[in-house]
Amino acid sequence: MHDLAAVTALVDRLTSGAVPAERVAEIRIKAGPVFDPEALEQAYEMLARETPLEGSCLVIEPSFARCEACGVSSPVGPEDLAGHVLLCPACGAPSPVEHGAGIELVAIDLRPGPSALPC
Ligand SMILES: [Zn+2]
Q1: Which site among 11, 33, 72, 81 is 20 to 30 Å from 115 CA-CA?
Q2: Centroid of ligand 1 to alpha carbon of 71 (angstroms)
Q3: According to CATH, what is the number of the domain 2-110?
């Protein structure tokens, strides 16, 4: 359920008046490896419905983790987690999860005008 809670907080923030929500075309976020991108997208679509954000897209950038054992930076997701420990996809070494607990707003793309454009 952390996916839904994180997206709820994001939608609340976006519809609180900080940005012209009705002109938002695309939201770009970075999500920690504990999040399932598909669940985030579904939650966003559901929560944005009937708000000024309806019709905008959520774009999720994969999170990367650099392994201290082998030095390889790899994109990581829920499948690389064992409990709260991230296992390096390259060598299997465990490392603590960093930035794994939240989603981070990277960018908001606004439409130039009020007319709706398809994603
Ligand atoms: Zn490694």
Answers
A1: 11
A2: 6
A3: 3.30.2320.50
Cα of 77 to ligand 1 centre, how many Å? Answer: 15
Count Cβ neighbours within 10 Å for each residue of 43-82 and write b for 16 or more, e otherwise: bbbebbeeeebeebbbebeebebebeeeeeebebbeebbe
Compute, in angstroms, the gap from residue 100 CA to the centroid of ligand 1: 17
Using one digit for the tens of pLDDT, what is the confidence trace for 55-107?
999 999 878 888 889 999 888 888 888 877 889 989 999 876 665 568 889 99
Q: What is the largest CA-CA distance in the chain?
A: 51
Tell how far the Cα of 94 is from the centroid of ligand 1, in angstroms: 8
